[in-house]
Amino acid sequence: AQSVTQLGSHVSVSEGALVLLRCNYSSSVPPYLFWYVQYPNQGLQLLLKYTSAATLVKGINGFEAEFKKSETSFHLTKPSAHMSDAAEYFCAVSASSASKIIFGSGTRLSIRP
Amino acid sequence: EPEVTQTPSHQVTQMGQEVILRCVPISNHLYFYWYRQILGQKVEFLVSFYNNEISEKSEIFDDQFSVERPDGSNFTLKIRSTKLEDSAMYFCASRGGLAGDGETQYFGPGTRLLVL
């Protein structure tokens, strides 16, 4: 069975500050890990994915995430937040590329001017 | 850039009515999915579809639900007799099936269903 836990349902940072969104996963097999972003009234957009290649994954809009097997974590970071980063962020896991995706409960990111 | 499209964007229906949600996956994609997101809750998997048959379904996907690929482009989700608790945003996704980018599920913008 697989699951993800996102720590913090709401994170607020100042514009220009570091963004850190936490995600821990549980998986009985080597996982595929994803971060999706959902802007208000829009669908889910893939930010980045980990599929057993490099442990540091770079995505769109300056985001990156690091797979740490020892900590079962896949935290999302961005060095400098922009106002346009305000959205809901979902960490997700699947057992393989063919499998269903299991989503976390989401973290709402707010950016303070 | 190719994208998954869904119609309608919003649908309001009466309890007990049938609804059909439509999706046009990315051309040449082989794997199709439906997910839903009840307001304020996490996105949940409903069903996956490949080679004209269901490959996996969740406990949510009971006999009230069905999926179909009626032609070469559309992928539909039918709810036979809607319940209040079916109110949610329904997302369609498709995946190419080949290595690399073919492993990524691309999501549509969703259909917001409201059952009254």
Give a concise summary.
The complex is a heterodimer of chains A (113) and B (116). With 113 residues, chain A is mostly beta strands.
Question: Secondary-structure blueprint of this entry?
Answer:
The complex is a heterodimer of chains A (113) and B (116).
Chain A: E1 3-7, E2 10-14, E3 19-26, E4 32-38, E5 44-50, E6 56-58, E7 64-68, E8 73-78, E9 87-94, E10 102-103, E11 107-112
Parallel strand pairs in A: 2-11
Antiparallel strand pairs in A: 1-3, 3-8, 4-5, 4-9, 6-7, 7-8, 9-10, 9-11
Chain B: E1 5-7, E2 10-13, E3 19-24, E4 31-37, E5 43-50, E6 53-57, E7 65-68, E8 75-79, E9 88-95, E10 105-107, E11 111-115
Parallel strand pairs in B: 2-11
Antiparallel strand pairs in B: 1-3, 3-8, 4-5, 4-9, 5-6, 7-8, 9-10, 9-11
- Mean pLDDT metric of chain A: 93
Radius of gyration of chain A: 13 Å
The fraction of residues assigned to DSSP E strands of chain A is over 45%
> Low-confidence parts of chain B, pLDDT < 50 over ≥5 residues?
none
In which range does the helix fraction of chain B lie? under 10%
Radius of gyration of chain B: 14 Å
Mean pLDDT across every amino acid position of chain B: 92
The main pleated sheet of chain B reads as: 7 strands, mixed
Q: Secondary-structure element order of chain A, as H and E? A: EEEEEEEEEEE
> Which stretches of chain A are low in confidence, meaning pLDDT under 50 for 5 or more residues running?
none
Care to count the β-strands of chain B? 11
Strand percent estimate of chain B: over 45%
Overall body shape of chain A: globular
Global geometry of chain B:
globular
The largest interface is: A-B, 21 and 24 residues
Instruction: Specify the helix fraction band of chain A.
Output: under 10%
Assembly state of the chains shown: heterodimer
CA(first)-CA(last) distance of chain B:
37 Å
State the major sheet of chain A.
6 strands, mixed
